[in-house]
Write a structure and sequence with these properties.
With about 60 residues, the protein is mainly β. It has one domain (about 10-50). Helix content is about 0%, strand content about 50%. The protein contains no helices and 5 strands. Strands 4-3-2-1-5 form a 5-stranded antiparallel sheet, with no helix packed on it. A hairpin with a 2-residue loop joins strand 3 and strand 4 (about 35-40). The protein is globular and about 45 Å long. The chain starts with 7 loop residues before the first strand and ends in an 11-residue tail after the last strand.
Length: about 60
């Protein structure tokens, strides 16, 4: 699954947090801001997206 900066995710450890940074080429890593501080998690360690940041932009001419 593809994750974006600003997504609130649930980790396999049971913690929830917001994705602050994303980087990587062959393996994608995410910096997740949790209640207990920042954690580094690979894509495999993220269980699900709880809330997705939505930045709806207006279309042309409206």
């Amino acid at each position: 699954m593809i994750y974006f900066v600003g997504d609130v995710v649930k980790l396999r450890s049971g913690e929830t947090g917001e994705i602050v940074e994303i980087w990587g080429v062959a393996m994608t890593w995410h910096k997740v801001k949790t209640v207990h501080g920042n954690k580094f998690a690979s894509t495999e360690q993220i269980e699900s997206v709880i809330k997705r940041f939505s930045n709806k932009k207006r279309s042309w001419g409206k």
